[in-house]
TrEMBL record, chains A, B:
GO biological process, one term: carboxylic acid metabolic process
Gene3D superfamilies registered for this protein in UniProt: Aspartate Aminotransferase, domain 1, Type I PLP-dependent aspartate aminotransferase-like (Major domain)
Keyword entries, A-Z: Decarboxylase, Lyase, Pyridoxal phosphate
Any one of the GO CC terms: cytoplasm
Family: Belongs to the group II decarboxylase family.
Gene Ontology molecular function terms on file: carboxy-lyase activity; pyridoxal phosphate binding
Native source species: Marinobacterium marinum
Highest taxon listed in the record's lineage: Bacteria
Record-linked SUPFAM superfamilies: PLP-dependent transferases
Swiss-Prot/TrEMBL cofactor(s): pyridoxal 5'-phosphate
Matching InterPro entries: Asp_decarboxylase_pyridox, PyrdxlP-dep_de-COase, PyrdxlP-dep_Trfase, PyrdxlP-dep_Trfase_major, PyrdxlP-dep_Trfase_small
Residue numbers bearing the N6-(pyridoxal phosphate)lysine modification: 341
Record-given protein name: Putative pyridoxal-dependent aspartate 1-decarboxylase
Length: 551, 551
C-alpha cells in the first residue's frame, strides 16, 4: 500500500501547498471529513464497522509497516486516510466492546470524543500558565475535587491551597506509572532531605545521601501483588529493584502485616532505611485491597511515607456503599488514581494526590524562561515537562457523570463481578481462583472430576495436573482472543490452596457498563466450546489419564 | 456559573440514563455537536472567535475553578459545554496565532484534528499488543523512520531490527523530558551494569553500584544551556543535581570543549565517574547547536554515553540545506526528538532513539499478565506504562507532510529568523543579543544612545544600565502579552560582551509557518509603542540620566 501511495505521486510540494494544510479545512465529503462525522454520529457503529473481529497474525500486520523511508513528497490526505482505515483502524483492538473484559480500558462516554477534539484544537501546554491560562486553574480544580474525594479536608483547607503559588494538591500526568514514580520520588527526597551541611539527596544523589545518613541502602515495601511500575520506580530512582521489598500476601491477596513488620525489623538490623510503604487499592491481577488503615498505623510507627496505589480502585471512593473498603486511604501521604481507567477518560491521564500540599516542594525545579520561582506554573513540580490539557476531560467527567453517576458505575461493576463469580462457582467445568472484592477476579477451566482429583492427589500429581491445566487455560485464552468475539486476559497466580504453585488463570475486569450477565455467559460458553474442541490434544489426554489413575 | 449549573438540577440519575452517555451520540444541533462541526469546518475561525484576546488576570480566572465539591448529580452536557466555551476556551491561549512567537507550540495542520479524533475514539493502549495490535508495528515504523533520518543505517539493519522481539530502535513517550530521562536511565544502567557477583545497578541501586565500582559518585556533563529536564533527570535517577556538571559556553552558546576536557580530568581525580555527555541540538533559549562531532570524539575517548537533546532541533535533519549543522548526531548513542514541537503534532508526544537496538534492554522489565518475556509489547522498555496511540499522528505527519515538506517548513523558519534578526540589527532602538543559528534568537529594547553609552561606560554604570534595561524588557514583554495581540517570551542570558552579567531578553521562536515578516514588524512596532508609553517611568528617567552623564 505504502508503495502504491508513493507511485501515485502525491501532492505537489511548494510552500503555498504546505500552508494550505495549516489553513484550509478538510473538504466536506472528503474521506477524513466523512470519518469525522461518522464518529460523531455513531461511534459504536464506526468501531463495529471498521475493526476486523478476527485477529490477524502480528507478523502479517507488520508487513504494512516495514518501510523506514520517509516519503520525499506528500501523500494525499485522502489516500493516507484510506490506508489508516484499511491497515490501522481495521487491525486495532475493539477496546470498548462489551465482551472484551480482559483489560482495564473500557467504553468511553460519547461526550469525551468531541471534547477531546476541542482540547486538541486548543493545543495548550500545561507546563506554564503562558501556554495554558485557564487550563492551569482548571487542572488545580480537578486535583482539588479528587483530593477532597480522598482526604475530605475542610473548606478552609481548599480555599487556602487550591490555587496557592508554591503549594500543590497533586500532579496530573500521563498515567499511573508516572504518578507512582512521582510519589516515591518525593518520598525519597524527603526521607533524605537537607540536614546540616548535607544539601539533600536531590543535590547529592543516592550515594551522598546514604553516606551522610549512614545507611547501607534504602527500601520500598509493597505486597507481592504490587504493580510492576513500582519495580520500575525503584530502578529509575536509584534505589534498585532488589530494594523494592516484596511482602507475602494472605489468601485474599492482601499484604501480610506480620511479615511486613518482621521485614521492617530485619531491614533495621541491616542498616537499610525503609522510606516508603505502598498499599494497593485494587491489585491489577485480582482487584484486592490491602488493609490500608493498619498499614497507615505501621507507616506512622516506622516513619515511612505511606503511598496508596489506587490507580484502579480509587474511584470506589465515589460509592457510599463500597468506599469503606478503602478505609485508611485518607491517612496516606500520597495516592495514585488513573483517570483513563475508572474515570472513563481517554488514554493518557493519571494523577497523584498529596495529603500535605508541601510535599511536592521536595522535587521543585525552575528555569530562567518558564516555571520561574513564584510563578503558578504547574511544570515546576511535575516529572513531565510539556503536557496536554487532559485535565479538561477529567473535569468534564466529574461534572457530567457526577459523584452519583460514578458511584453507580462502580457499584454496577462490583455487583456484576459478584454475580459472575457466583455463577462460575455453580459450573461443573470451571473453578473460581480468586474471589472478587472489587470488579476483577480470576478463574480457570477445570472440570469437576479434575478438581476432585486435585483434592486427593499426591503432591507430584497435583503439580502435574496444574501444569496441564495452565497450558489448557493459556490455549483457550489465546484461541478466544484470536476468534475476536470476546477477550479475557490471563495471568499467573500462586494460590495458597495449591501450595503456592504458579498456575495460569483467566482474569476478568468488569468496568465496561455495557457488559451484561448475558455477555459474560457467552464468554464462558465460548471457552467451554474451545475446550471441547481440544478433546484430542495431548494435554487433554494426559489430563484424562491422570484423573483415571485416581484411587 | 458552576453554582448556577447545580441549581438548574442536571439530568436525572439512573443506570439507564448513565448508559445513554455511552451509547447515544450528541444530538445534531446540540452545543457540543455544533462545536465539533465548527472546528472541522474552520479551526482558525473557531479559535479566533472564542478565545478572548485581552489577557484576564489569573487570580480572576481562578474564581471560576474554586469549587472542589464534585456535583452529586449530573450537569447537562450542553450546560457544561457552554461553561467550557465561556470559561475555558475563552480564557485559553491562542497557541497557533501567527503573532505568538514566544513558545514552542505552533499551529497544527488541519488533518491532525480529525485524525486525533479517530485515535481517541479507538482508545488503544500501546503498553501491549493485546490492546494496540496494529498500533504496535505502526509505532515501530515511526521509530524506524526517524531512526533512519538520524542514523542512516542500511536496509538490512532496519529489516533485522524494526519489528524484532527483544530489540527496539527507541521509545515513544509523552515528551522530551521523559525521552531525556529514558536515555540517561539506560546510560546509567549500562555504565554500572552487572559485573562478576554484582547484579547491576538496576538491581542494587546507586549506592551498591558506587561501592562495587569504587567511585565517589557519577556525573552527567552538559553545557550551561542544557534544558532543565536534565537536572530533573539527575535528581530522579539518584545522581543528584550537583552531579549534572554544567560546562561553560562560548559566545555562540555552544559548549566550550577545553572546559569540558578540563572538567573530565578533574572528575577523574575526584574518583567521580562521568557516564554521560549531553550535546544540544537547538538550545531552548537561543536555538544553538553544540559541536556534536567533536563531542562524539570526546565521548568516545572517555567512554561516555553520548546523548543528543534534539527535542527542538532534530527535525532540521529533514533539510538537506541545514542538516550539516547537526553533523555528528549520527554518532550519538541516543537522540531525543519532540514530535509536538517541529513535527507539528498535537501536545503530548516525544521520542528517544538509540543507535544500538540493544541499549533499551538495560531498562527492560516484565510482568505476569502483560509485557511477558518474548512478547513484542512495547511496554517492556518504556518509562511510562499505559500510553495512547499518538504515534499514529506522527506517522501521518511523516507521510502527509513528507521529507520535502518538513524541510521546507524548517528552512522557512530558519530563513525568517535570519531576516528578522537582520532587520533588528538595522533598528535604532533594539539590540540583537543572540544571533539565530536555527529559528530561535534573542534581542532587547535598547536605544542607540544607550547602546553607545554601554560601550564606553565603566563597569558599575554598565551594570546599572543593564539592570534598568532588563526591567524595561520585562515590563514590555508582560504588557504585550496582556494586550493579547502578540506574544514573545523572555529569558535571562549572560552574554560575554557584558562580562557574563545576567540580562533579560526577548526570545522569539519562529516555527509557525503562518508567521510572516509583516507580522514580526508589527510585534516590534507594538514593543516600541509600549516603550514609548513608559516614557515617564522612573526606570526610563534613570536610564536617561545615566546616558546624559556620558563624557
Amino acid at each position: 500500500m505504502v508503495e502504491v501511495l508513493k507511485k501515485t505521486g502525491g501532492a505537489e510540494i511548494s510552500m503555498e501547498n504546505l500552508l494550505r494544510i495549516f489553513t484550509v479545512p478538510e473538504a466536506p465529503g472528503s474521506t477524513l471529513n466523512r470519518l469525522d462525522n461518522d464518529i460523531s454520529e455513531n461511534l459504536a457503529g464506526f468501531l463495529q464497522e471498521h475493526i476486523v473481529a478476527e485477529e490477524a497474525d502480528l507478523v502479517k500486520i507488520e508487513q504494512d509497516f516495514n518501510d523506514t523511508r520517509i516519503p520525499e513528497v506528500p501523500v494525499f490526505v485522502s489516500e493516507h486516510t484510506q490506508f489508516l482505515l484499511d491497515k490501522v483502524v481495521a487491525q486495532s483492538v475493539h477496546t470498548s466492546s462489551p465482551s472484551f473484559v480482559g483489560h482495564m480500558t473500557s467504553a468511553l462516554p460519547y461526550f469525551m470524543i468531541p471534547l477531546s477534539k476541542i482540547m486538541i484544537a486548543l493545543n495548550q501546554n500545561l507546563v506554564k500558565t503562558e501556554t495554558s491560562k485557564a487550563f492551569t486553574p482548571l487542572e488545580r480544580q480537578v486535583l482539588g475535587m479528587l483530593h477532597r474525594l480522598t482526604y475530605e479536608q475542610s473548606d478552609e483547607f481548599y480555599d487556602t491551597w487550591l490555587h496557592h503559588g508554591r503549594k500543590r494538591l497533586g500532579a496530573i500526568c500521563s498515567g499511573g506509572t508516572i504518578a507512582n514514580i512521582t510519589a516515591l520520588w518525593t518520598a525519597r527526597n524527603r526521607a533524605f532531605g537537607p540536614d546540616r551541611d548535607f544539601p539533600g539527596i536531590h543535590h547529592s544523589g543516592m550515594f551522598g545521601a546514604m553516606r551522610h545518613y549512614g545507611y547501607e541502602g534504602a527500601a520500598i515495601l509493597v505486597s507481592e501483588r504490587g504493580h510492576y511500575s513500582l519495580s520500575k520506580a525503584a530502578d529509575v530512582l536509584g534505589i534498585g529493584r532488589d530494594n523494592l521489598i516484596s511482602i507475602e500476601t494472605d489468601s485474599y491477596n492482601r499484604i501480610c502485616l506480620t511479615a511486613l513488620e518482621r521485614k521492617l525489623q530485619e531491614l533495621k538490623q541491616q542498616r537499610i532505611r525503609p522510606f516508603a510503604l505502598v498499599g494497593i487499592a485494587g491489585t491489577t491481577e485480582t482487584g484486592n485491597i490491602d488493609p490500608l488503615d493498619k498499614m497507615a498505623d505501621i507507616a506512622e510507627a516506622y516513619g515511612l511515607h505511606f503511598h496508596v496505589d489506587a490507580a484502579w480502585g480509587g474511584p470506589t471512593l465515589f460509592s457510599k456503599r463500597y468506599r469503606t473498603l478503602l478505609k485508611g486511604i485518607e491517612r496516606a501521604d500520597s495516592v495514585t488514581i488513573d483517570a483513563h481507567k475508572q474515570l472513563y477518560v481517554p488514554m493518557g491521564v493519571g494523577l497523584v494526590l498529596f495529603r500535605d500540599p508541601s510535599v511536592l516542594e521536595s522535587i521543585e525545579h525552575h528555569a530562567q524562561y518558564i516555571i520561574r520561582q513564584g510563578s503558578k506554573d504547574l511544570g515546576s513540580t511535575t516529572l513531565e515537562g510539556s503536557r496536554p490539557g487532559m485535565a479538561m476531560l477529567v473535569h468534564a467527567g466529574l461534572k457530567i457523570i457526577s459523584r452519583g453517576g460514578y458511584a453507580m458505575l462502580i457499584e454496577n461493576g462490583i455487583e456484576l463481578a459478584r454475580r459472575f463469580a457466583d455463577h462460575i462457582v455453580t459450573l461443573e467445568d470451571f473453578e473460581l481462583v480468586s474471589d472478587p472484592e472489587l470488579n476483577i477476579f480470576t478463574y480457570r477451566w477445570a472440570p469437576a472430576d479434575v478438581q476432585a482429583r486435585l483434592l486427593e492427589a499426591d503432591e507430584d500429581t497435583r503439580r502435574e495436573i496444574n501444569e496441564i491445566l495452565s497450558r489448557i487455560t493459556q490455549v483457550i485464552q489465546k484461541e478466544q482472543r484470536e476468534r475476536g468475539k470476546a477477550f479475557v486476559s490471563r495471568t499467573r497466580l500462586k494460590p495458597e490452596c495449591y501450595d503456592q504453585q504458579a498456575i495460569t488463570v483467566f482474569r476478568v475486569v468488569l468496568a465496561n457498563p455495557l457488559t451484561t450477565d448475558k455477555v459474560l455467559r457467552e464468554v464462558i460458553e465460548e471457552q467451554r466450546e474451545i475446550a471441547a474442541g481440544m478433546r484430542d490434544s495431548s494435554d487433554m489426554r494426559a489430563l484424562a489419564a491422570l484423573v483415571r489413575t485416581s484411587v
